């Protein structure tokens, strides 16, 4: 009996330790939310405090929501993240469909060309991309911000793995029954890959929502800024980082955190199912 | 007559259709790949070749190549003290960053793998930093690391590690700025790497762990003999992506330190930004881009050379 008790006690200690570690890792996030409720005096006080004086101090949030461009920045980012995520998924799935089900001349070369984009980091090709977008007259436009994000090699790779789990005899049988490629794609492939789709679209939304350098380069009109660039402008305007910035951070964190709280386990499952050998 | 003619017509139409269908069938696989291919070429390969050409040319402010200059830009850039400094800073940053960026999330994945009391909660907490953007993370840490009113200095003072008089100004100190940025970057990337590694650790077959248990293997022995070898492809993937992320690091520098103090955080991509965009010197910026790319490429090649030794695929 005693060893059992020791094991149980050990397990509880481990759980509590893990929980404490989790709280420590998530602490900066929690702290940002707390700072959003602080008045300037509390914010600048020494010794520093974690909690605000009271949680009914909404001036920072009011300032951000009504006297700044943050709502517009959020709308921009939301539009960009949603459209990029949808286009990415569709382009990757189409390509993956071809790589998974067809045999054609140059298949390996084309696959290599698409996977090869992973070797060219966007940071290394900023200058010509900027010039291209500028020559197309797309500076300060949504398309200009979005266009460089449409290709996701890792998505093509993951969807190909996922589609390969569909047996080709099922496809042949469906085609004998008069099913076409598009119908098969939308009615079989997409439902089968639900877990992968969920994981990759959540990941893609968060990644695009969070991009910084490219949107900074191709926009200079304040109303075209994305949130990530926008809050740095806020910091520059208000001469230094002050409590309102944290209210803005808290507001822009909400969408991604909500996505996370609900989608996090799906993401792990999606990654796991995508990496199954096939 | 008329019926036979119409039959003949029908035959011809059917024949055309099959020919048409054949063309469609032949083109179909390409049509599915075409859309992504257009964007891959337009925004990855074309600009890469363009960057390469710029680095070998004199370029005007409109981005037009004026003349070919051979390796002159490269010879020029390596004699610039600022760029050599940027290479050094980038290497130092990568060295500080990559080990932490792989080991910490892997440890978290091992912790979260066991299902226990609260395990759902702390699994979510470990992944949560992924939801926070670079710029938001930067401002949060700027506040936490503030010299006077930051919680980090306050905490160090309370536990007695540091006296008030010698408070460190983490982000404005020549010695501490780069390590601070690497800790911030580790935090920014910890969530996603944790999830990748957790998925891999969860995929380790239970039978292997159970048979190791029967043989009386200790926990760490199981980790080193079973879990690490089986998850090594994912660990390798994380290692490679983080190495590239380290070499390409720019946003924390741009937001928090502007390359300072005394250029101690001026990374290579930050150099690309300041020369290529702020000063409009496209040729020099492109040369710096290519050198950064080559650095990442060489590092990756090294990784792949050693991959066969350490990574187990079954």
UniProtKB/TrEMBL annotation, chain A:
Keywords assigned: Cell membrane, Membrane, Transmembrane, Transmembrane helix, Transport
Keyword Membrane: yes
Gene Ontology BP annotations: transmembrane transport
Highest taxon, organism lineage: Bacteria
Similarity comment: family membership: Belongs to the binding-protein-dependent transport system permease family.
Subcellular location: Cell membrane
Domain ABC transmembrane type-1 residues, every copy: 74-264
InterPro entries: MetI-like, MetI-like_sf
Topology in the lipid bilayer: Multi-pass membrane protein
Name of the protein in its database record: ABC transporter permease
TM ranges: 12-34, 78-102, 109-131, 137-159, 195-214, 243-263
One GO CC annotation: plasma membrane
Entry keyword Transmembrane: yes
TrEMBL record, chain B:
Pfam families per the UniProt record, alphabetical: BPD_transp_1
InterPro entries documented for this protein: ABC_transporter_permease (IPR051393), MetI-like (IPR000515), MetI-like_sf (IPR035906)
Topology in the lipid bilayer: Multi-pass membrane protein
GO biological process: transmembrane transport
Domain of life: Bacteria
Localization annotation: Cell membrane
Alphabetically ordered keywords of this record: Cell membrane, Membrane, Transmembrane, Transmembrane helix, Transport
Domain ABC transmembrane type-1: 87-303
CC per GO annotation: plasma membrane
CDD domains in the record: TM_PBP2
Chain segments annotated as transmembrane: 30-49, 93-112, 124-145, 176-201, 226-249, 282-306
Main location per the UniProt record: membrane
Assigned protein family: Belongs to the binding-protein-dependent transport system permease family.
Protein name, UniProt field: ABC transporter permease
Annotated source species: Ruminiclostridium papyrosolvens C7
């Amino acid at each position: 009996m005693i060893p059992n008790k020791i094991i149980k006690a050990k397990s509880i200690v481990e759980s509590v330790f893990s929980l404490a570690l989790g709280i420590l890792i998530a602490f900066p996030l929690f702290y940002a939310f707390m700072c959003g409720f602080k008045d300037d005096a509390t914010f600048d006080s020494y010794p520093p405090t974690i909690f605000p004086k009271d949680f009914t101090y909404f001036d920072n949030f009011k300032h951000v929501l009504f006297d700044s461009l943050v709502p517009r920045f959020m709308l921009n980012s939301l539009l960009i993240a949603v459209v990029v995520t949808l286009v990415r998924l569709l382009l990757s799935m189409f390509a993956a469909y071809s790589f998974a089900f067809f045999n054609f001349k140059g298949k390996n070369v084309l696959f290599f060309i698409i996977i090869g984009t992973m070797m060219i980091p966007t940071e290394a090709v900023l200058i010509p991309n900027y010039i291209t977008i500028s020559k197309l007259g797309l500076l300060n436009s949504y398309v200009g911000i979005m266009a460089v994000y449409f290709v996701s090699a890792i998505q093509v790779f993951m969807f190909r793995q996922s589609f390969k789990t569909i047996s080709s005899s099922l496809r042949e049988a469906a085609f004998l029954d008069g099913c076409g490629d598009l119908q098969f794609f939308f009615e079989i492939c997409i439902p089968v890959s639900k877990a992968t789709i969920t994981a990759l679209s959540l990941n893609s939304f968060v990644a695009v929502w969070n991009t910084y350098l490219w949107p900074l380069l191709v926009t200079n009109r304040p109303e075209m800024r994305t949130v990530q660039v926008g809050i740095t402008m806020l910091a520059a305007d208000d001469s230094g980082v002050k409590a309102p910035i944290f209210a803005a951070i808290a507001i822009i964190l909400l969408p991604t955190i909500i996505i996370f709280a609900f989608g996090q386990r799906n993401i792990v499952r999606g990654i796991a199912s995508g990496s199954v050998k096939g | 007559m008329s019926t036979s003619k119409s039959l003949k017509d029908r035959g011809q139409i059917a024949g055309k259709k099959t020919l048409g269908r054949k063309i469609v069938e032949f083109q179909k696989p390409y049509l599915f790949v075409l859309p992504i291919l257009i964007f891959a070429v337009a925004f990855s390969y074309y600009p890469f070749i363009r960057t390469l050409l710029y680095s070998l040319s004199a370029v005007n402010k409109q981005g037009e190549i004026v003349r070919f200059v051979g390796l002159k830009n490269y010879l020029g850039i390596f004699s610039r003290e600022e760029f050599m400094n940027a290479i050094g800073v980038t290497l130092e940053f990568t060295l500080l960053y990559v080990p932490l960026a792989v080991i910490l999330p892997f440890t978290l994945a091992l912790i979260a793998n066991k299902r226990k009391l609260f395990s759902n909660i702390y699994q979510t907490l470990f992944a949560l930093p992924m939801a926070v953007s670079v710029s938001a993370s930067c401002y949060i840490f700027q506040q936490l690391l503030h010299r006077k009113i930051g919680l980090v200095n306050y905490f160090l003072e309370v536990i007695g590690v540091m006296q008030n008089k010698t408070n460190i100004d983490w982000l404005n100190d020549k010695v501490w700025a780069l390590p601070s940025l690497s800790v911030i970057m580790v935090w920014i990337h910890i969530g996603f790497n944790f999830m990748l590694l957790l998925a891999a650790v969860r995929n380790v077959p239970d039978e292997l762990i159970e048979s190791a248990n029967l043989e009386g293997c200790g926990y760490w022995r199981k980790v080193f003999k079973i879990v690490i070898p089986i998850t090594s492809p994912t660990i390798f993937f994380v290692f490679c992506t983080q190495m590239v992320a380290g070499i390409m690091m720019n946003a924390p520098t741009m937001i928090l330190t502007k390359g300072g103090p005394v250029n101690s955080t001026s990374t290579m991509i930050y150099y690309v930004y300041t020369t290529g965009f702020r000063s409009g010197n496209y040729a020099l910026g492109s040369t710096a881009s290519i050198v950064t790319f080559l650095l990442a490429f060489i590092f990756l090649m090294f990784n792949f050379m050693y991959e066969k030794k350490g990574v187990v695929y079954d």
